[in-house]
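Narrative of activities, Objective 1.

The group set out to show that a structural description can be obtained from nothing but a protein's sequence at a throughput compatible with the screening campaign. Below is one input-output pair from the validation batch, recorded exactly as produced.
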Amino acid sequence: MPFDDGLITVSRCGDDGWQLVYPLRYVGAVDTFEVPAGYRTDFASVPRIAVWLIPRFGRWTAAAILHDYLITDALPAGLLTPVDVDGLFRRILREEGVPPVKRYLMWAGVRWGALVNPRRRAGWARTAPQVLAITAAGLPLAPVMAAVALGLAAYGLAEALATRGEHTGTLST
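Output recorded for this entry:
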């Protein structure tokens, strides 16, 4: 097991944020990293449209927390490149037993995230062929994603209308 004890203890901080109560320590064959107690996380940063396929937490939670920490701390310090951080994420997903399809979809997701983030964009072209191939392989999921997007939009509209009524006092129950 690449993480010391496999336990992650967190406390809630906000609607979708969590804070580590104890450090999270990864010990690999070559690398050792420690996410300090107090580090804030949202677990896996999965877009809402895709949580039906990849929930925000699961077997990959520790890898996602470490990935976020490396992005926020190791990257700015110049200790790792964006490609290294994302590659380490994929390797840890494998070590944690995440199935190959889910593992590669998650890796492609963080690489797409790197493309839109100027701080993480370096090296994107090197991984682009793999990312594009994985994305193309996932295209059969597009109709489901579109249906989820429509459902989320309808839900968001209904929620906004209901909330508006609560604040103005015009909607009664």
